[in-house]
Structures are given as structure tokens and as C-alpha cells.
């Protein structure tokens, strides 16, 4: 950690069991920084599609036409029809022809409504990671701050990178920008550490180092798991493939004139844990209202 020379990765570094955690952390930092610069500024949640608003209103305030979409074949609407106590059996629908607008419209609206509900829920989850303003600490400094006071393993840093790459690039569930990258990184590291390591840092300590409250961190952990659809399993082969991808990314950065794997000029001591109380553990730009 004391050297400021580039950490040029060699062929024998493909073995993740011999890759230093600081090198894996730098790989994570540079790849996420590149992803953020490519993404640019985007709004927190995209505007809802036109059909979504009326569909949600119909779900909250059912009408008589909604009764025809009941899968059980019963109608509990207020429409005046023949039947027993307002309950119309499924065979009553035979009165309508195949090209009837009411029947076709009802089935079509049901399909759109389901999709709109999923988009609405996804937007509500992703919004939890957005800040009102970009935090005043760089991605690399933020990650090395976590590494200083809550050091994690090489596998955790690589797994967090796998998670974020899947969300932002592979599945395109969320765009990583300056406004949400810090919260996403903190949640990804916490979830990965709990899943991969036998021992984890206290929740209160991890939240304080990351600049959040315990409640905020807990909410981010749960939201992150839902975004990942709880598919958090990674093995050695997957981590090695992803590390090779990160190596190529860093090499492209170096070829474009970007300094490759260079650690901070004054790297923190990994073993220094006694100064916790003397350091401002709250990063104000990160402490934002949800």
C-alpha cells in the first residue's frame, strides 16, 4: 500500500485468491468511474408511460367494467344485471359477442395494468438510491475510505462489481450516475460481504463509515436485493471472468491516456482503526432524505 507505482496486472494475477484486495478495489473503482462517465446525467426515474396512470387508478378505484376481468368469473360491481345479489356467473359473459369492445378492452387493460404495476414498483425501488445532489467525495476516495475502516476481501469487491455490472449493463435495471453511485456501491459491498464472508463488520459501523444511518443502510440492502431479484450467487469462475473483463477495461483506459491502476498518493493504512473517533465519520453530501 505504500508504493505509488502503477499496479500493472500480470498473467499470474488471474487467480483471485492471490489478488490483493486493494488491487481488486482499484479495479472496481476505475470500472465504475468509467461507467458513470459514459452514462452521464439521467433523471432518477423515467416518466411513466401513458396507459400506466389510468391503469393504476382503475386498480385503486375499481369500476363496473373491471368486474369482467375477475379471474374467478364473478362480478362484484354496481352494475344492474340479472343474478343473485349482484353476483353474475361467468356464463353470463356469453351474452357478449367476440368482437364486443367491452370484453376486448377489459382483457387488454388487464395486461397493460400488470406491466405498469411492475414498472411502478421498480421505479419506487430505484429512487431510494438517488441523492438530490452529487456527494462531494470521489468514487475512489469513497471506496478507499470504506476499505480503510471496514476492509473487505477481494471476492467481495469483485462480487460487488458483478452485481452493479449486471444491474446497469446486462439487465439495464438502473443507470449508475453521480447521484446514485455512492449508495449503490455501499449497498453492493454490504450485501456481498454478508453473502461471502463468515464475519462481517457491525452494521452500525459500516453505515457510519458510508455516511448513512443504520435505517437508511438497511433499506438500501433490502432494495438492492430486490433489484437483483435475490440472485446473489457468484462462484470462482464467474469472479475470474469478471476480473478479466475489468482488466480489459483498465487497459483501455490506459491506452486512452488515463493512468492505469494507480493508488492514491497518500494511501491510508489498512490496519489503522484506532482513529475512528477523531475522523468525521459523517459525509454530509451522502446524508440525504429519501
TrEMBL record:
Q: InterPro entries, alphabetically?
A: Cyclin-like_sf, Cyclin_PHO80-like
GO CC annotation, single: nucleus
Coiled-coil region list: none
Please provide, alphabetically and separated by semicolons, the GO molecular function terms listed in this UniProt record.
cyclin-dependent protein serine/threonine kinase regulator activity; protein kinase binding
Give the matching Gene3D superfamilies.
Answer: Cyclin-like
Residues spanning the signal sequence: none
Chain intervals for the UniProt region annotation (Disordered): 39-70
A Pfam cross-reference name: Cyclin
PANTHER family named among the record's database cross-references: PROTEIN KINASE COMPLEX COMPONENT, PUTATIVE (AFU_ORTHOLOGUE AFUA_2G07660)-RELATED (PTHR15615:SF32), PTHR15615
State what protein this is by name. Answer: Cyclin-domain-containing protein
Amino acid at each position: 500500500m505504500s508504493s505509488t507505482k502503477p499496479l500493472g496486472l500480470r498473467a499470474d494475477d488471474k487467480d483471485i485468491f492471490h489478488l490483493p484486495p486493494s488491487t481488486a478495489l482499484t479495479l472496481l473503482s476505475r470500472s465504475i468511474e468509467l461507467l458513470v462517465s459514459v452514462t452521464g446525467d439521467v433523471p432518477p426515474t423515467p416518466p411513466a408511460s401513458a396507459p400506466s396512470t389510468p391503469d393504476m387508478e382503475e386498480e385503486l378505484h375499481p369500476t363496473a367494467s373491471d368486474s369482467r376481468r375477475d379471474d374467478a368469473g364473478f362480478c362484484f360491481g354496481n352494475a344492474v344485471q340479472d343474478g343473485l345479489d349482484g353476483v353474475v356467473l361467468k356464463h353470463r359473459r356469453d351474452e357478449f359477442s367476440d368482437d364486443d369492445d367491452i370484453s376486448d378492452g377489459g382483457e387488454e387493460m388487464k395486461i397493460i395494468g400488470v406491466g405498469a404495476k411492475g414498472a411502478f414498483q421498480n421505479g419506487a425501488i430505484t429512487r431510494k438510491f438517488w441523492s438530490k445532489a452529487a456527494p462531494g467525495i470521489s468514487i475512489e476516495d469513497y471506496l478507499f475510505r470504506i476499505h480503510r475502516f471496514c476492509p473487505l476481501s477481494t471476492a467481495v469487491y469483485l462480487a460487488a462489481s458483478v452485481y452493479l455490472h449486471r444491474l446497469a449493463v446486462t439487465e439495464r435495471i438502473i443507470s449508475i450516475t453521480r447521484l446514485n453511485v455512492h449508495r449503490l456501491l455501499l449497498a453492493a459491498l454490504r450485501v456481498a460481504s454478508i453473502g461471502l464472508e463468515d464475519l462481517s463488520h457491525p452494521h452500525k459501523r459500516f453505515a457510519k463509515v458510508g455516511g448513512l444511518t443504520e435505517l437508511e443502510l438497511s433499506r438500501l440492502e433490502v432494495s438492492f436485493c430486490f433489484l437483483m431479484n435475490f440472485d446473489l450467487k457468484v462462484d470462482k469462475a464467474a469472479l475470474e471472468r469478471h476480473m478479466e473483463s475489468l482488466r480489459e477495461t483498465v487497459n483501455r483506459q490506459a491506452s486512452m491516456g488515463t493512468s492505469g491502476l494507480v493508488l492514491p498518493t497518500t494511501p491510508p493504512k489498512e490496519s489503522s482503526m484506532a482513529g475512528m473517533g477523531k475522523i468525521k465519520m459523517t459525509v454530509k453530501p451522502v446524508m440525504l432524505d429519501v
